[in-house]
């Protein structure tokens, strides 16, 4: 159970502060595990259970939760040392890559030195993609070179100076290749879906570093598994976002909304909200052409440390004309324990101490794929 639900983060070299891969590693943390599992804090999951079903739901099934708590109360008796539990699906393979051995690895252009202290701005790095012709990505994984200092990575591909084609819109120009944040999964497309990287593209890494009290270095990488032939469907990344934010000092409930309208029949695949430290909640809502409306995802409370991509259990139809609405709420008051400065008016900015409102989503155009 620990391997299945915990070791994705709690492993040697992982983002969590201690490993839980073996009985010997688990035993010293029994009391703390009982607290966080009993309270539902771990494994972390911030989606309101009233809305949506998600393939990557990290919540413990009640039977597993009760079994772990009963085992802890019983004094954590060891099992049979000759029985080796089956590996978890999240166990790493292929030299640490969870997507398997990549066909292509793209690194930051040089090693980055992270100072011991300070409030660091986001770092942006661009690397020319090594492709002379268009390629299709089946899986992508951003891998931190030094998990101690890497809070998150966002990776995108784009063409320098390119403009949208006829009928395209700004949201469709985003060429997301996923990223890294503790607890999240690599970007993996099912059969028949893929993401195109055009010839001549540039790969952009947005790096968020967190000082540890010591001078550190990092050289993060992106691994790509390429499709052997063009897929039936192209997965796209869109967004509901507005840069026009104004969050007055001391305010405890400020909201902003943005929307995206699907021009063609589409299938929604995943949702990934992005706010900073003052974020309180993020809601995605679909408003359909027939007048119907439903909440697809509500993340409340927002936690900056866990920027999860919520993968729908089943692709959801978005008929042409459907509006996808994003609604974010912020708390800029002194009662927000994560607020770095409640006396400051806040607007859009790339610093963690500024704010953003971005609701990423993945989708493909066209009706549902026919069952095989």
Report the helical percentage: under 10%
Shape: globular
Oligomerization category of the chains in this entry: single chain
Largest sheet: 6 strands, mixed
Give the SSE string: HHHHEEEEEEEEEEEEEEEEEEEE
Gap between N and C termini: 33 Å
Count of helical stretches = 4
Decide which structural class fits the backbone: mainly beta
| Rg result | 21 Å
Low-pLDDT ranges = 88-92, 162-174
Total number of beta strands: 20
Quote the beta fraction: 25-35%
Mean pLDDT: 88
Summarize the structure.
8% of the residues lie in helices and 34% in strands. The chain contains 4 helices and 20 strands. Strand 16 and strand 17 form a beta hairpin.
Polypeptide structure, described:
The chain contains 4 helices and 20 strands. With 372 residues, the chain is mostly beta strands. Strands 1, 4, 7, 8, 11 and 12 form a 6-stranded mixed beta sheet that branches. A 4-stranded antiparallel beta sheet has the order 3-9-5-6, with no helix packed on it. Strand 16 (279-287) and strand 17 form a beta hairpin. Helix 3 packs antiparallel against helix 4 (62-73). The radius of gyration is 21 Å and the shape is globular.
């Amino acid at each position: 159970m620990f391997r299945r639900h915990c070791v994705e983060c709690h492993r040697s070299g992982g983002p969590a502060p201690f490993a839980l891969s073996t009985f010997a590693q688990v035993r010293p943390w029994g009391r703390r595990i009982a607290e966080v599992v009993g309270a539902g804090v771990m494994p972390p999951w911030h989606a309101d259970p009233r809305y949506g079903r998600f393939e990557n739901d990290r919540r413990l099934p009640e039977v597993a939760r009760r079994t772990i708590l009963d085992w802890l109360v019983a004094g954590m008796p060891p099992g049979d040392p000759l029985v080796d539990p089956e590996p978890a699906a999240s166990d790493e393979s292929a030299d640490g890559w969870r997507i398997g051995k990549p066909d292509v690895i793209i690194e930051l252009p040089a090693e980055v030195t992270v100072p011991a202290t300070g409030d660091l701005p986001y770092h942006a790095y661009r690397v020319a993609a090594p492709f002379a012709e268009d390629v299709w990505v089946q899986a992508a994984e951003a891998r931190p070179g030094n998990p101690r200092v890497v809070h998150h990575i966002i990776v995108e591909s784009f063409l320098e100076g390119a403009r949208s084609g006829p009928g395209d819109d700004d949201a469709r120009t985003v060429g997301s290749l996923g990223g890294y944040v503790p607890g999240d999964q690599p970007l993996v497309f099912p059969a028949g879906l893929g993401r195109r990287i055009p010839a001549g593209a540039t790969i952009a890494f947005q790096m968020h570093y967190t000082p540890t009290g010591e001078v550190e270095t990092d050289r993060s990488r992106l691994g790509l598994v390429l499709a052997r032939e063009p897929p039936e469907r192209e997965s796209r990344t869109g967004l509901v976002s507005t840069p026009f934010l104004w969050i007055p000092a001391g305010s405890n409930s400020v909201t902003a909304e943005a929307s995206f309208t699907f021009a063609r029949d589409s299938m929604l695949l995943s949702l990934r909200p992005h706010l900073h430290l003052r974020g309180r909640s993020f809601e995605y809502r679909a408003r359909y052409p027939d007048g119907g409306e439903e909440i697809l995802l509500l993340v409340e409370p927002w936690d900056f440390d866990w920027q999860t991509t919520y993968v729908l259990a089943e692709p959801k139809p978005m008929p042409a004309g459907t509006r996808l609405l994003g609604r974010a709420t912020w708390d800029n008051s002194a009662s927000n324990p994560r607020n770095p400065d409640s006396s400051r008016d806040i607007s859009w900015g790339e610093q963690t101490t500024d704010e953003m409102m971005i609701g990423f989503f993945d989708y493909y155009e066209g009706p549902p794929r026919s069952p095989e």
